[in-house]
Design goal:
The chain is α+β, with helices and mostly antiparallel strands. It contains three helices and two strands. It has helices at about 5-15, 20-35, 55-65; strands spanning about 40, 50-55. It has a two-stranded antiparallel ribbon. A hairpin with a 6-residue loop joins strand 1 and strand 2. The longest helix has 18 residues, at about 20-35. The radius of gyration is 11 Å and the shape is globular.
Length: about 70
Amino acid sequence: PVWVNTNWIIYEGLKNKDKTFSEIVKNKTINLVEKKDFHEYYNYRTGENLGANNFSWSAALYLDLKLS
């Protein structure tokens, strides 16, 4: 599955080491949330919404990625 919080940790860990890959992770995560709304996690192949709806961690970390 794709978890916004895991992608955020990957982005934060790589943003000063591998700018290109960290931006890919950031942009794909932002695009996924913008297309599928805020959910706990997503199917990594299809992007299907999984888990809880209106998940606040996803919303908070989406904003952090969007504003970084």
